[in-house]
Amino acid sequence: xxxxxxxxxxxxxxxxxxxxxxxxxxxxxxxxxxxxxxxxxxxxxxxxxxxxxxxxxxxxxxxxxxxxxxxxxxxxxxxxxxxxxxxxxxxxxxxxxxxxxxxxx
Length: 105
Known about the structure:
Blueprint: H1 4-17, H2 38-54, H3 63-75, H4 81-96, H5 98-104
């Protein structure tokens, strides 16, 4: 069974790259939502930033992306898979969620 962190990462990756979530159970309610008010949103942002600082690495599964990046790594001098992936994902997140992106710039 996937951990909560792995489940969240999968949801984020699928939302960024437009694939549908198939047969995934809804997340368990924690009793709070972002609509609970500004204090809850502020706490959520602090927690998200703390987690990002402690665990900056993300992962997702895509054979197609892996194949393209491995080809580039083998054929392009000094190609860095991590840097290229980070740039692509950052641009996708920035375009998909511009208001949220501005909060962490």
